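Q: For a teaching session next week I want to show students how multiple molecules come together into a single three-dimensional assembly. I've collected the sequence lines for a complex. Could you give me the predicted structure tokens for the whole thing so I can convert them for display?
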Amino acid sequence: GDSVTQMEGPVTLSEEAFLTINCTYTATGYPSLFWYVQYPGEGLQLLLKATKADDKGSNKGFEATYRKETTSFHLEKGSVQVSDSAVYFCALAGGTSYGKLTFGQGTILTVHP
Amino acid sequence: NAGVTQTPKFQVLKTGQSMTLQCAQDMNHEYMSWYRQDPGMGLRLIHYSVGAGITDQGEVPNGYNVSRSTTEDFPLRLLSAAPSQTSVYFCASSYLRTGGSYGYTFGSGTRLTVV
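A: Of course. Below is the structure for the complete assembly, covering every listed component.
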């Protein structure tokens, strides 16, 4: 079946540092890939997505590129802010996950001033 | 446009009690699904539906029932609550467009505690 593996957390950074959160996946076919963010006490918000190989999703300074050759969708941001502190989830849909999302375990990000 | 509405937001149950978590969407999405979120385990799929009258099990279906009599509603029933079902529950609705583009909308969640 389909699966998503995220880098282990938690991740702690200083403000303005560079962020990378690794995400790799296993799926048949051509899944769509997503990053979701969950701020403390809130639900999930879509951060960005990509639907085919070499697509780059971007939003709020975050970027991720769909790499089919390495089955990866790493999340990056050049300069993090305290307000980026949250839990980040990588997810996929499609492949054998028709109509439903398969999530990674989540990465807790804490940004200090 | 309300999106996905979940009720209640918080619930405390005693072991053995039953209850229904409600989920409704007003976007005419074909797909709906229920997830539970536990610390360190991400979100795991409980049940999902690809249309009215069609449901299927996800990764962790035991102890839960669903039905989908209308496109809008997808209630989740806990048959006999157990402490292991203490979790945060999220409902989502989604669509698939030509070309393989998915869109998902999540509800705000139900925090359930079973004592």
